[in-house]
């Protein structure tokens, strides 16, 4: 629909006799080219869909099969065992001169049927093979003969050069776990955070649920799992995201950062030009199904509704929406010859930056409406769509949103800690009115050339946008590059028209709505406490040397850090079980049969760790409940002065093994939370009251964690350019009194943490948790012989002379591939 805006130049005029319409030649050419592009796109998608449908076979294999059948027929052999003769009898009789043609057609039909049957067999075989998840349970570095055989068969059946959706027909459906197993795992997960009385109460609710409602709800889920592509993903998208009425800002969106230690160019327009060009190159490869991620990255907007939002995805969009100093612009990204060059895009962005026109009244704060509660924004949008339809379509129909910020951002030498925190806050919330939070993602370009992404969560999860962001950073910096003076390479195109300024006819009745939305957005933005710090004492290489999972290592350190930073809640809760643990007395735990040591401080909490379920058709995420009894045993031992390092290390390895088992179970569709969520949705549809499911649904996740994966290591040369690695991203806390913690392994020796919490909570402090995370990592590392040196260094200064509170610059010995500004 965004293409329709180009039709403004198409102006028919009637002759005096009103007999015919006169069309200008340029407009006819534009219509012709538009139709040509459309048909090319449709034909391209048709061919890609066909190739995907027959994969791992190819059209060439059909030709080979047909030729073989024809050759056998010529040698008077009948590979069809008489079927081709019967097919010939069913064909029309065109006379004796066409007898040979009937034979060719019969052979072609038989070859097609046989080819289709073989493809179907390959799809079934591959689906059965991909249903095997035993490889997940293999010890690190070891592989059984069964798994080796499975891997060989997968390579045989999986074909070569797959496209984006090549394996869609072969991916197995996500299984519905046993409801008894799910309830058992759930009770095991909440045991460490519940008192004896609360646990007994929850267990009684679980037994009542299994006896009364579980079998009926499970039957409906089994039925859905056979009918739908995925028994949980569509409900997850609808009820967790689209039916949420909360503001998207902080609550739903997340952010991704630029390179931490370098900025390839300080020229804002140049960085925007290269980044936009790289993003659209990525979209081009996505449209041709040459890359793996999700198709709704581009041309996608979350449209607000009074009761439910919906995701609007366009086939194509040939412009981006740009926001600068309170004004909106439509910037075309293509000409008749194709995508604009980076230098041409830089020129267009510079024209926007140089535009002296002021923002119209209330236009500057218009985007704050996208940060308002969804039902409020839905009602206002109806009026906006009536009064300013063209401008709204230009924004919502854009490939993505670009915000040219007037302030610098990123790491500074003068105040590294505060500058990183401000950088994270600017990406997560901004000023509340300078991001269009409905768009699938917004590219933020700061005045000093620093970049960042703000991503809406409903359409896909972090690994999808992370894959795109890695490609963008690597392409714009290493492939496209910059000139010595910091501009994009190439030459500007002075024939391009000026970017189109969007004009909003804002009715008076929405002025108050904009003001209220801005006030709410500023309140929400001002309440978020962001803290980002790179931990540089050790990284993934140190953890791998001890044959440990790096993710499990971090998760155990987070449990130790949270225990140390947390406070003891009110010992007299109003009602229901409180999902915290704060022991006051000495007792024996009947569930685990170990001695609990009396403590005056510290508590455990339910911990949410996200993992992917992409092994299944339309799989999204599952929760790993990282706060296990094994993790709690380890934490208590670390806080017990009577425990020796070998004892703590033994408990640590048990906790890591337990976490790995939970992670693998979640990835293979045997997690807890998505199954319980789906059961709860079914109970709501059937109007069945289940106190157990209500209790599960009311849980508070005071520690929400996620690892930002590095998926394309080959794009970055971390040895030659160690500073050119992404610093990951973060998200808001899931609970008003909790933390959101994200982490990324930057190369082999740095881990960057992103922590968020609410300033309004008296229980949380992002900076204090960050300090405890650093201490916990050093304490865990000290359990290993090599880690003793790291801890001693962490208590004083590192080898470069930096104190433990400073942020080191990892650019020594590295040379930037293009013009770069360190810090």
UniProtKB/TrEMBL annotation:
Gene3D superfamilies registered for this protein in UniProt: 6.10.250.1760, Chloramphenicol acetyltransferase-like domain, Choline/Carnitine o-acyltransferase, Choline/Carnitine o-acyltransferase, domain 2
Residue intervals passing through the bilayer: 50-75, 104-130
Domain (Choline/carnitine acyltransferase) ranges: 175-565, 600-774
Segment forming the signal sequence: none
PROSITE patterns: ACYLTRANSF_C_1 (PS00439), ACYLTRANSF_C_2 (PS00440)
Region spans: Disordered: 792-823
Broad class of where this protein is predominantly found: mitochondrion
UniProt-listed SUPFAM superfamilies: CoA-dependent acyltransferases
EC number: 2.3.1.21
Composition skew (Basic and acidic residues), residue ranges: 794-807
Catalytic-site annotation from UniProt: 457 (proton acceptor)
Molecular-function GO terms, alphabetical: carnitine O-palmitoyltransferase activity
Membrane topology note: Multi-pass membrane protein
Domain Carnitine O-palmitoyltransferase N-terminal: 1-47
Catalytic activity, as annotated: 4,8-dimethylnonanoyl-CoA + (R)-carnitine = O-4,8-dimethylnonanoyl-(R)-carnitine + CoA; (R)-carnitine + hexadecanoyl-CoA = O-hexadecanoyl-(R)-carnitine + CoA
UniProt keywords, alphabetically: Acyltransferase, Fatty acid metabolism, Lipid metabolism, Membrane, Mitochondrion, Mitochondrion outer membrane, Transferase, Transmembrane, Transmembrane helix, Transport
GO BP annotation list: carnitine metabolic process; fatty acid beta-oxidation; long-chain fatty acid transport
Family: Belongs to the carnitine/choline acetyltransferase family.
Name this polypeptide is given: carnitine O-palmitoyltransferase
């Amino acid at each position: 629909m965004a293409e329709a805006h180009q039709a403004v130049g198409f102006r028919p005029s009637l002759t005096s006799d009103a007999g015919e319409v006169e069309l200008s030649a340029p407009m006819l050419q534009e219509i012709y080219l538009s139709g040509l592009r459309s048909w090319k796109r449709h034909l391209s998608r048709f061919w890609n869909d066909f190739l995907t449908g027959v994969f791992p076979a190819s059209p060439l294999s059909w030709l080979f099969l047909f030729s073989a059948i024809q050759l056998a027929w010529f040698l008077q052999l009948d590979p069809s065992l008489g079927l081709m003769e019967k097919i010939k009898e069913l064909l029309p009789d065109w006379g004796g001169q066409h007898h040979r043609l009937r034979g060719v057609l019969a052979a072609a039909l038989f070859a097609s049927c046989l080819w289709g049957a073989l493809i179907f067999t390959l799809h079934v075989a591959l689906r059965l093979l991909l249903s095997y998840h035993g490889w997940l349970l293999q010890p690190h570095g070891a592989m059984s003969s069964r798994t080796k055989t499975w891997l060989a068969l997968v390579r045989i059946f999986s074909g070569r050069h797959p496209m984006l959706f090549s394996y869609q027909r072969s991916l197995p459906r996500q299984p519905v776990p046993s409801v008894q197993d799910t309830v058992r795992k759930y009770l095991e997960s909440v045991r460490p955070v519940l008192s004896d009385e609360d646990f007994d109460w929850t267990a009684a609710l679980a037994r009542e649920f299994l006896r009364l409602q579980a079998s009926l709800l499970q039957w409906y889920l089994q039925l859905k799992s056979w009918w739908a592509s995925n028994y949980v993903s569509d409900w997850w998208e609808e009820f967790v995201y689209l039916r949420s009425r909360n503001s998207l800002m902080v609550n739903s969106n997340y952010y991704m950062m630029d390179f931490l230690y370098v900025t390839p160019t300080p020229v804002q327009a140049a960085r925007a030009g290269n980044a936009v060009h790289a993003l659209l190159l990525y979209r081009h490869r996505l449209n041709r199904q040459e890359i793996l991620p999700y198709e709704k990255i581009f041309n996608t907007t979350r449209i607000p509704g009074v009761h439910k939002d919906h995701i609007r995805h366009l086939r194509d969009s040939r412009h981006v929406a740009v926001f600068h100093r309170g004004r909106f612009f439509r910037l075309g990204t293509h000409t008749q010859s194709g995508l604009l060059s980076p230098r041409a895009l830089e020129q267009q962005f510079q024209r926007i930056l140089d535009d002296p026109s002021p923002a119209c009244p209330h236009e500057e704060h218009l985007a704050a409406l996208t940060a308002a509660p969804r039902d409020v924004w839905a009602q206002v949008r109806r009026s906006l769509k009536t009064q300013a339809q063209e401008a709204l379509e230009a924004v919502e129909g854009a490939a993505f949103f670009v915000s040219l910020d007037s302030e610098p951002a990123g790491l500074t030498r003068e105040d590294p800690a505060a500058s990183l925190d401000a950088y994270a806050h600017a990406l997560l919330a901004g000023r509340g009115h300078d991001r269009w939070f409905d768009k699938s993602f917004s590219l933020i370009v700061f005045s000093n050339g620093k970049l960042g992404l703000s991503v809406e969560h409903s359409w896909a999860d972090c690994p999808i946008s992370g894959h795109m962001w890695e490609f963008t950073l690597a392409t714009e910096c290493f492939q496209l590059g910059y000139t010595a003076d910091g501009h994009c390479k190439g030459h500007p195109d002075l024939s391009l028209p000026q970017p189109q300024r969007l004009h909003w006819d804002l009715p008076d009745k929405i002025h108050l709505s904009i003001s209220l939305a801005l006030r709410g957005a500023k309140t929400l933005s001002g309440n978020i406490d962001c803290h980002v710090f790179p931990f540089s004492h050790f990284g993934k290489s140190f953890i791998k040397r001890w044959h440990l999972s790096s993710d499990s290592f971090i998760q155990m350190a987070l449990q130790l850090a949270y225990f140390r930073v947390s406070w003891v809640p009110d010992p007299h809760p109003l009602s229901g079980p409180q999902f915290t643990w704060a022991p006051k007395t000495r007792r024996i735990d009947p569930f685990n049969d170990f001695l609990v040591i009396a403590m005056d401080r510290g508590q455990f909490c339910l911990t949410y760790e996200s993992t992917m379920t992409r092994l299944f058709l339309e799989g999204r995420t599952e929760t790993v409940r990282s706060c296990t009894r094994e993790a709690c045993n380890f934490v208590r031992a670390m806080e017990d002065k009577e425990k020796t390092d070998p004892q703590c290390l033994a408990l640590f390895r048990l906790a890591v093994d337990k976490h790995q088992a939970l992670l693998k179970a979640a990835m293979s569709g045997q997690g807890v939370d998505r199954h319980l969520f789906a059961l709860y949705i079914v109970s709501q549809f059937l109007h069945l009251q289940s106190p157990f499911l209500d209790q599960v649904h009311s849980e508070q996740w005071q520690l929400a964690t996620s690892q930002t994966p590095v998926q394309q290591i080959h794009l970055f040369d971390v040895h030659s350019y160690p500073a050119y690695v992404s610093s990951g991203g973060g998200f808001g806390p899931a609970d008003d009194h909790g933390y959101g913690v994200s982490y990324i392994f930057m190369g082999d020796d740095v881990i960057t943490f992103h922590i968020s919490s609410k300033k309004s909570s008296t229980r949380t402090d992002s900076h204090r948790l960050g300090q405890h995370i650093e201490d916990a990592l050093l304490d865990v590392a000290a359990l290993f012989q090599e880690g003793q040196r790291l801890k001693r260094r962490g208590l004083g200064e590192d080898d470069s002379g930096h104190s433990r509170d400073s942020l080191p610059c990892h650019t020594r010995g590295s040379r930037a591939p293009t013009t770069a500004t360190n810090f």
